[in-house]
Design goal:
alpha/beta; 5 strands; 17% strand
Length: 158
Amino acid sequence: MSVADDERWMLHALALAELAEREDDEIPVGAVVIGADSVLLGEGSNRNITDHDPTAHAEIVALRQAGKAIGNHRLVGCTLYVTLEPCAMCAMAMVHARIARIVYAASDPKTGAAGSVFDLLADPRHNHRVDKQGGLLAEEAGERLTAYFKRKRSKPVD
């Protein structure tokens, strides 16, 4: 994919993140899965608070939709765009799905599993590795996350 394609899909993921925060007061993370033919296969935003589901991260929601769209749990040749570096759970889901490439915006210095804390996507012990690119529109994604947590922490506790 071209740089313009990468930016286009990351902007789509950022719009999903903004929608999740605005409509459901979820942590603003969005993700999209794009097929090898540049077609949107799945999209998602964080749903773990709304759905009472600890696994409903944006990446997992998007991967589930993509798998249903193609009728396969293997997403060979697909690219996943996400606004925040994936956690260990999401990174391993990408490895198991055989995602070809991930493009993420903001790094996560606390739980990032694409190189910040762990590098599960490139671990040679796995039988599949995921190409990765971080930092695309990172400032915009990071500012949104920082503002969300600042707002949440300043609210009085019930």
